[in-house]
Amino acid sequence: MNGHDLKEFMKELGISHVGFSDVEKVVPSNWSRYHYAISLVVQLSNGIIDDIIDEPTDTYFSHYRSVNYHLNEVMLKTTIALQNCGFGAIPIPASQSLHNKSYYGAFPHKTAATLAGLGWIGKSALFIHHQYGPRVRLGTILTDMELPVGTPVTESSCGNCKICVNSCPAMAIQGQNWIQGMERKELYDAHGCSTHMKEHYQHIGRGSVCGICIKTCPVGR
Ligand code: SF4
Ligand code: SF4
After folding, report:
1. Distance (Å, rounded) from C-alpha 161 to C-alpha 170?
2. Pairing with 12, which of 38, 76, 177, 209 sits 20 to 30 Å away (CA)?
3. How many domains in the chain?
4. If you take atom 5 of ligand 2, which residue's CA is the nearest one?
5. Which residue segment(s) compose the domain that 11 sits in?
6. Atom of ligand 1 nearest to the CA of 125
7. Residue 56 falls inside a structural domain
8. How far is residue 17 from each of residues 9, 74, 85, 201, measured CA to CA in Å?
């Protein structure tokens, strides 16, 4: 199996875009043998995102869960295929918040996707795919299979846009342009965002989604 075969394999399983990156400098030390990351991008339904006005919809919450489930399933199948070929692989769950590190997963999908050159981090702290904008969900597989890596994106292309800053009901988005290495808290207040969702959208997915900054971003509309 090579990088081309891997991309075709995942596209046939329903992945919209696949990219590869070298994560040697950012991977946790216990996973240091997994130098490469495979980024999986699934485009969300434009119709469902467009229906979000001033709060999430039940359909959006269901879609969000389905896409995460789909990503996890494709990552599992890809991990099995890689291991059958003699490579090591670790699938990082599509949506995960560690018990000892709130609002963070085991490895940042957005870091892998920007290193693969698939897009940048927006003022909203969302990953902004070059074509689909923030209307995506991401997955990541760490592997020791040598892959042809993309050219990293190291800065924002948001420019002077402030649409997400002005549309966030929690006023959680600071308005800074991202550059590589910036901490998320410099872009947005994850706790403020989560608190707003829990207080105002408890009736939809128990306050676990919002989607307004995804809907309003002009990229990928
Ligand atoms: S998800 Fe909603 S509350 Fe959170 S930053 Fe985006 S618009 Fe603001
Ligand atoms: S709405 Fe504008 S500022 Fe916010 S992420 Fe999208 S392009 Fe960037």
Report:
1. 18
2. 209
3. 1
4. 122
5. 3-216
6. 5
7. yes
8. 12, 13, 22, 31
